UniProtKB/TrEMBL annotation:
GO molecular function, one term: guanyl-nucleotide exchange factor activity
PROSITE patterns referenced in this protein's UniProt entry, alphabetically: DH_1 (PS00741), DH_2 (PS50010), PH_DOMAIN (PS50003)
Biological process according to GO: intracellular signal transduction
Domain of life: Eukaryota
Residue span, DH domain: 1-155
Lineage, broadest ranks: Eukaryota, Metazoa, Chordata, Craniata, Vertebrata
PH domain location: 167-289
The protein's name in its UniProt record: MCF2L factor
Keyword entries, A-Z: Guanine-nucleotide releasing factor, Phosphoprotein
Length: 289
C-alpha cells in the first residue's frame, strides 16, 4: 500500500502510470486498505501469553473476516488489469525503490493465501490441545474459518457465471455449488428425446441459492498463456418454491432427482460420492422446508 498504491498519487511518477490504470486503483488493490486496517489491531499477538484466548479472538471477529470474501471476489478483475499493465515502467520503478525480489502481483495474492492458512493453524493447535480448556472454542473457531473459506470459494465461482439474465445477488444466499452428471426427462415433447436422455449425461455445474437452482455449463478458457480460468454459461434455472426432490433413485445410491411442476420436468442428478449427495439433499431440504 505504501510502496505501490500511494505512489499512484505521487506527482513525480504520474507520467509513468499507463493509461489503462488511470483511476483503477480500487480495481487493482480491491479492499486491501480495509484488510490492512483490520490486521493492524494486533489482536492475535495479544494471545501469545494466553493461547487459550485465541479461538475467542476468531469467533469475535467472525463477521469482520468477511472482508476477505470481498477481496477474493475482486481478484479476477485485479488480475486482468495486472496482465494488461503489470510490465509498465511505473511498477518496475516502485519495485526497484522497495528493493523487492517479487513483483506486486505476488503480494496481491497474499490475502488469498492468508485466509486459507488460518484453518491449517487452528487444526495444528487442536492437535496440541486435546480435552484441555478452550478445545471446544477452538473447534468452533475452525468450523467458522472453514465456513468463511467455503463462502470465499463459492463467491469466486459465482462471479464467473455468464449469460444469466437476472441479478444473481437477488437469488438469496449461495448455499452450495459443484459439478454433476445430469439427465433430463421431460413429460412434454417427443418420446425419442426421452429415450436418448437415459444414456448420455450432461456435465452441469449447479449453483444452489435459497430462491433458485441454476444449471450452468463449465467452460475452461486459456487466458494468454496464463492459468485456465473457468466460466459457467447459464443453461436453465428452477425456482426453489416450485421444486420437489426424490432422495433415492433405483440402481445408484449417488443419484437423486429434482423435479419441477409435479414431475413435468425431472432432473436426475448424480454426485461424485454418496457423502456429497447427502450434503446437497440436506441443504435442499432446508430450503424446501
Amino acid at each position: 500500500l505504501q510502496g505501490y498504491a500511494s505512489e499512484m498519487d505521487n506527482p513525480n511518477l504520474v507520467h509513468l502510470i499507463p493509461s489503462a490504470l488511470q483511476n483503477k486503483k480500487e480495481i487493482l488493490f480491491g479492499n486491501l486498505p480495509e484488510i490492512y486496517e483490520f490486521h493492524n489491531r494486533h489482536e492475535i499477538e495479544n494471545c501469545i501469553e494466553n493461547p487459550e484466548l485465541l479461538a475467542r479472538c476468531f469467533l469475535k471477529r467472525k463477521e469482520d473476516l468477511q472482508i476477505y470474501e470481498k477481496y477474493c471476489q475482486n481478484k479476477p478483475r485485479s488480475e486482468a488489469l495486472w496482465r494488461q499493465c503489470g510490465d509498465s515502467i511505473f511498477f518496475q520503478e516502485c519495485q526497484r525503490k522497495l528493493d523487492h525480489k517479487l513483483s506486486l502481483d505476488a503480494y496481491l495474492l497474499k490475502p488469498v493465501q492468508r485466509i486459507t492458512k488460518y484453518q491449517l493453524l487452528l487444526k495444528e493447535m487442536l492437535k496440541c490441545s486435546k480435552n484441555s480448556e478452550g478445545t471446544a472454542e477452538l473447534e468452533e473457531a475452525l468450523a467458522t474459518m472453514l465456513d468463511i473459506i467455503k463462502s470465499v470459494n463459492d463467491a469466486m465461482h459465482q462471479i464467473a457465471i455468464t449469460g444469466f439474465e437476472g441479478d444473481v445477488s437477488e437469488l438469496g444466499k449461495l448455499l452450495m455449488q459443484g459439478s454433476f452428471n445430469v439427465w433430463t426427462d421431460h413429460k412434454k415433447g417427443h418420446n425419442k428425446v426421452k429415450d436418448l436422455a437415459r444414456f448420455k449425461p450432461m456435465q452441469r455445474h449447479l449453483f444452489l441459492y435459497t430462491k433458485m437452482l441454476l444449471f450452468c455449463k463449465k467452460r475452461e478458457e486459456n487466458t494468454d498463456g496464463h492459468e485456465k480460468t473457468a466460466s459457467y454459461s447459464f443453461k436453465n434455472s428452477l425456482k426453489m418454491s416450485t421444486v420437489g426432490i426424490t432422495e433415492n433413485v433405483k440402481g445408484d445410491n449417488k443419484k437423486f432427482e429434482i423435479w419441477y411442476n409435479g414431475r413435468e420436468e425431472v432432473y436426475i442428478i448424480q454426485a461424485s460420492s454418496v457423502e456429497l449427495k447427502n450434503t446437497w439433499i440436506s441443504e435442499i431440504r432446508k430450503v424446501l422446508t
